[in-house]
Design brief:
There is one protein chain. With 207 residues, this protein is of the alpha/beta class. It contains seven helices and six strands. The chain folds into three domains: 36 residues; 100 residues, 3-Layer(aba) Sandwich (Rossmann fold), CATH 3.40.50; 57 residues, no CATH class. Helix content is 39%, strand content 18%. The N and C termini lie far apart (77 Å).
Amino acid sequence: MWGFSVWRRCIHCSLSVMKKLKGKTAAEQRWVLRQLKDPYVKASHAQNFRCRSAFKLLEIDDKFRLLQPGYSVVDCGAAPGAWSQVAVERVNSAGTSRHGLPRGTVIGIDLLNIPPLDGAHFLSSHDVTHTATHAKLLELLPQDLAEMILLPRGSLLCKYWDGVLSHQLQEKLSSVFHSVRSIKPDASRKDSAERYFLARMYKKPVK
């Protein structure tokens, strides 16, 4: 009976995979197969994260402790919202902590639609480079942050693609942050040029 159950499950899985691959191009089929084999994709489904990228932020934050209860987070390019999910929990922006911890703020911005998330303010269909978006962002930030997005000693975590121009970005960040390091979390695929700059201790520009 056990053997029959496993055999039946294997057939079901094979049919499910064939259905997912039907009508797709060769490149799309490779992507689907990679997703099906990816342990972080499976874990994101099990833990109700919107996508596997949540584990990149979890890994980075576990190591560097960027997100603390009461902090304010602006998630640029937030769709579909997995990093915001992590941020909401760690800065306590939904106010769900039972230990009297301070409540933070999470704001997500993207050109795409971002499904609602308790504890986060999303600016969907907004361009982060537009002044109108800046004005809306300042309205949503706590009052003590209304005149400046990033406070002195604040941190920035940004994704970049490793290449000939990446050093220019690092030099730019180094001019306004005391510490800049390059990170490639384990959750980032090995064959990807994706990396992250972690910039800490923001220097307030002298006016």
